Protein: Dipeptide epimerase
Organism: Ureibacillus thermosphaericus
Amino acid sequence: MKITDIKCFEVAAPLITPFKTALRTVEKIQNIGVYVYTDEGEIGIGEAAPTAVITGETRKSIVHAIERYIKPAIIGLEIEEIAFIMERLDQCIYKNTSAKAAVDMAIYDLFAKRYNAPLYKVLGGYRKELVTDITISANDAQTMVNDSLKAVKRGYQILKVKVGKDPESDAERVIAIRKAVGPDIQIRVDANQGWSPKQAVRIIRKLEDANVNIELVEQPVHYADLEGMHYVTAHTETNILADESVFSAKDALKVIQMRACDCINIKLMKTGGIYQAQKISHIAEANGIACMIGCMLETKISVSAAAHFAASQKNITLVDLDGPSLCLKDPISGGPTFESQWIRMSEDPGLGFSIES
Ligand SMILES: C[C@H](N)C(=O)N[C@@H](CCC(=O)O)C(=O)O
Ligand SMILES: [Mg+2]
């Protein structure tokens, strides 16, 4: 089955509430979708999220990377020769990882359809269900408490609490949420690089001393400050998860060698897709480091690709695939089902969507 064409389209989805982190505030999702066409009439689908503050990409840069660099590099290649396609995809342009991820997942969609199997089974088929957390945006304490109670009412048992915008009062916000939701709800905290290493140690120790029982703290300090990540990991009991510090397999090796974290957040938008994401998962597994599968502000299209990947990997034990839960409606039907915290894989071939284009 040969690749004959690639086309980009707009993916828009309103959010239930504005998404606020230490890095940005977003009112609605405006992503780029991708169709990959073949000579046998099969079409693969993918999605890229323009997260300029993390990957450096915009909607324009994604479309340009795909049309000017990726498309000429892979047109005419055989879907069955996926490792060769992925080498071309990786080499045709530096970085631009979300543009690459959209095309990578569309090719994996076609690859699994070629063998008439759901993608998670083609990739290894380790599990059929995932439990995701849901993000609580960074706001004042009362708003975050209210949002947390609403999330629990919707059936979520794991909260990913965004902090890092106002370090001096972050611990109080998290303590207020713990008091409101009780001891049985899992709380993970994401500072999105908002703390200095010393601030991070002070805040995390405060939470430890108050017995808040935080599962992990994600990316406490600046992505490039690996010494700072090591300092926080070494001076606190709580697990530290590297997110923005790890895009590639090389980055994963470095944080592991430097003991700069206890676990790693893999996102297809950072790795450039499933092919490169597998390398990080395997390196981490070989070093006894658990991984999270995460997402940016993405709809059901690309979050489904991440779910297929996560379901295939034994080492992905933490799930932050709440993109569809944050949207008012899905832009596509079919694929895995997202029902409150449960993500259940479908047995339809590929990613599982019925594509009319
Ligand atoms: C949406 C997801 N729960 C999440 O928080 N992802 C990122 C931030 C993504 C963004 O700004 O779009 C993360 O830092 O983990
Ligand atoms: Mg994060």
Q: What stands out?
A: The chain has 14 helices and 14 strands.
